[in-house]
Amino acid sequence: xxxxxxxxxxxxxxxxxxxxxxxxxxxxxxxxxxxxxxxxxxxxxxxxxxxxxxxxxxxxxxxxxxxxxxxxxxxxxxxxxxxxxxxxxxxxxxxxxxxxxxxxxxxxxxxxxxxxxxxxxxxxxxxxxxxxxxxxxxxxxxxxxxxxxxxxxxxxxxxxxxxxxxxxxxxxxxxxxxxxxxxxxxxxxxxxxxxxxxxxxxxxxxxxxxxxxxxxxxxxxxxxxxxxxxxxxxxxxxxxxxxxxxxxxxxxxxxxxxxxxxxxxxxxxxxxxxxxxxxxxxxxxxxxxxxxxxxxxxxxxxxxxxxxxxxxxxxx
Length: 316
Fold this sequence. Notes:
10 helices, alpha/beta, 9 strands, 2 domains, single chain
C-alpha cells in the first residue's frame, strides 16, 4: 500500500455524474507506478480482483460499490486494478502485458504487505473478460514472477470487440483496415499507430497495428467471444479452464447486435467449459453493457446476486 499513509486512512474518489456518493477505500501500490483500489470494508482474506474494459478505469463501472458491499457480507473484498491498458492505454497494449500486470497484483496480494490473501478470483467486465480468460488459460505458468494462480473467474459482458466494431464499419472498411494492419506487422511496424480513418471508427484513440489486428481479425489474440467462432475455437479457450467460471451476459447489451442469440452462444461456451461452468451463469435480462443507467431496475441486483451465489458455492 502507499507509504504516504493511505493504507491507514480512507481515500475518497468521486463517482461519475449519475452517482452522487463518494466511495471509501484503500489504494494499494502493487508495483512501480501501478495502483489498485480496495473498496471499503477492506482487508478480507478472500478477494475479487476486478478488471474493467476498454476506456474504463477506477470507478467508471457503476455497479462496483454495490458489489463491494454484497461481497463483504460473504467475507470477500473487492479490488479494482489499474493497468497500463486502463482508460486509453489498451490501444498500444496486449492481453499478455495485461496478464503480467495482473500477476503483479496477485503476487502482491498474496504477500504479507498485500494482506496475505488466501482466495483470489478475477472478474472481468467487457474486454476485461478477455483478460480473465487469458489469465486462466493462456498465461505461461513456468515463470512464477509473471504468474500466480487464482481460484476462479467471472465474466460480465463478454462481448466480441470485432462484432461491436462492425456495427460502425462496413465489411469493406474492416477488411481494408486489416490489410493495412497486416502489412504494418509484416514490415515489423506492429507498434506503429494505425491511420486515424480507422481508429476514429473505434473509440478514436491511438491503436497500434498489433492491437488492431488482435481485436478485429477473426481468431485474433483478442477474439474469444465472437458468435461466428466454432466449437473448436471455444474448446481452445473455455475448454482449457481448470477453475470455476461464472458468465453473466448483459441481455440488453448495446454493443451486441440484436440478431445475436445470446442463449445459444452461452450454450456453446458451456459445452466447452464442462464442469467448470457455473450453473448460476445467465443472460441478465434488461442489463446494458455495464449494467448502468438505462438497465431495468432489477438487472444490477440480479447480476450481483448471481456473483454472490457463485462465490458462496465455492466454499461449500
